[in-house]
Amino acid sequence: MKKHFLSVVMAMLLITSANAQNLQFGISGGIDAARFAVSGASGGPLKYKTELAGGVNFEAAISSNFGIQIEANYSSQGTGLISDDGGTVGSFNLDYVTVPVLVKLYGSPRLSFFAGPQVGLLLSAKSKISGAEEEDVKDQFKSTSFYAVFGTEYKFANGVFVNARYNLGVNNILDEDVVPDQEYKNRYFSFRVGYAFKL
Fold this sequence. Notes:
Layout: H1 2-19, E1 22-39, E2 46-47, E3 49-61, E4 66-82, E5 88-106, E6 111-129, E7 135-136, E8 144-155, E9 160-169, E10 183-198
Antiparallel strand pairs: 1-3, 1-10, 2-4, 3-4, 4-5, 5-6, 6-7, 6-8, 8-9, 9-10
């Protein structure tokens, strides 16, 4: 499925490049605020963890109202673990390269709304419990995570842009052999500032 998704990305790049009126390349950085959605487990609540993130994007405007944007991002996801009294007791830290393919609708020359699928390729996974050493747990998680992405962006005349999005994980990222009756799904907000220029 991962290979199929990446093949679709390459095909869309070729098609949009051939038909686009306006091509732009951008680079951005910001913060991801992530938390697991867990089902089938008991325990204390989960806490958002925030980490720096960033990436590059390629935008092709097909018309004045419609465009395609393909990105490659570094994203630090996971969750914080807190006790019933609100104290932080640990965390899961999962690092991904994410590749979203976004349909952009231009509400005005500066404002756009976007949505689309995203695949995340797991680079590393570690857990940390207060008072203990950090542990490598990559073998407990699947190598690929899939998402639905929704967001909005504002781009200034000088090429600077700001955007915000919600990344809704749709598959269980936990290896079923580890805990068969539990599901962990990635959920995170992204806030980015960047710069784009015409190609």
